[in-house]
Design a protein that fits this description.
Layout lengths: L10 E5 L4 H12 L3 E6 L2 H12 L5 E5 L8 H12 L4 E4 L14 H29 L2 E6 L12 H21 L4 E8 L20 H12 L9 E4 L6
Parallel strand pairs: 1-2, 1-4, 2-3, 4-5, 5-6, 6-7
Helix pairs in contact: 1-6, 4-5
Length: 239
């Protein structure tokens, strides 16, 4: 755990937090002293993640949630705030992807990806924004992808979700900055997680979940007059 506890008494809600980038972000924020609400769909995996953080002294609550379901958003935020306190930091990290030529993609693929990668971000932002507006402070960090700027074959639906996420982030930032709320996007390239196959790549040269967590850490610890609105992350060497 980090010895510099710059987020002492702050509360963070991290989605997709049971593994990969989400878990790395939650661990980083907890290391800075934040109390962290972990959200993911798999209760068993989520509890294991929470146990790891509790084992190093973090204040953590695990809240199984399907962020695609609008009916589960308010209970998620309510339980997090009842258990830990008002949410100061929201990290929208939950995301899925499936990749196929557009002519072969299905409506079910579209709905699942857009609901997870984009609609859930909208719903969670709406859920936490009123409290942040009242307190005139807060961070909302949306984990996107360089696919939100670059097209590739087979990525039509995934890219649409990430391009939309960047547009949403930029507009929400303009809506909320007058209240002292900073809405930022972190956009990594391929990260060495089990999100997608990396056949033929040297994973040691790929971005690691901790690299994304480092960017999130920079955003939430910046000076009050500063606004890091977007962070693009690429590997130092091509894998």
């Amino acid at each position: 755990m980090n010895s510099v506890r710059t987020l002492e008494n702050k509360v963070a809600l991290v989605t997709g937090a049971s593994r990969g980038i989400g878990f790395a972000v939650a661990r980083s924020l907890a290391g800075l002293g934040a109390k962290v609400a972990l959200c993911a769909r798999d209760p068993e995996r989520l509890e294991k993640a929470a146990a790891q953080l509790k084992g190093v002294g973090a204040a953590v609550v695990a809240i199984p949630t399907d962020v695609r379901n609008a009916n589960e958003i308010s209970p998620l935020v309510r339980k997090a705030e009842q258990t830990l306190g008002a949410i100061d930091i929201l990290v929208n990290n939950a995301g899925i992807g499936s990749f196929a030529p557009v002519q072969e993609a299905s409506e079910a693929d579209w709905n699942a990806i857009l609901d997870t990668n984009l609609k859930a971000v909208f719903l969670l932002t709406k859920a936490v924004a009123p409290g942040m507006i009242q307190r005139r402070s807060g961070h909302i960090i949306n984990v996107g992808s360089l696919s939100g700027r670059s097209a590739f074959a087979g990525g039509a639906i995934y890219c649409a979700s990430k391009w939309g996420l960047l547009g949403f982030t930029q507009c929400a930032a303009e809506d909320l900055r007058q209240y002292g709320i900073r809405v930022s996007a972190v956009m990594p390239g391929s990260v060495a997680t089990d999100f997608s196959p990396h056949a033929g790549k040297d994973t040691s040269k790929m971005l690691q979940p901790e690299d994304v967590a480092h960017a999130v850490e920079a955003i939430v610890t910046q000076a009050p007059q500063s606004f890091i609105s977007e962070v693009l992350i690429r590997p130092a060497q091509k894998p």
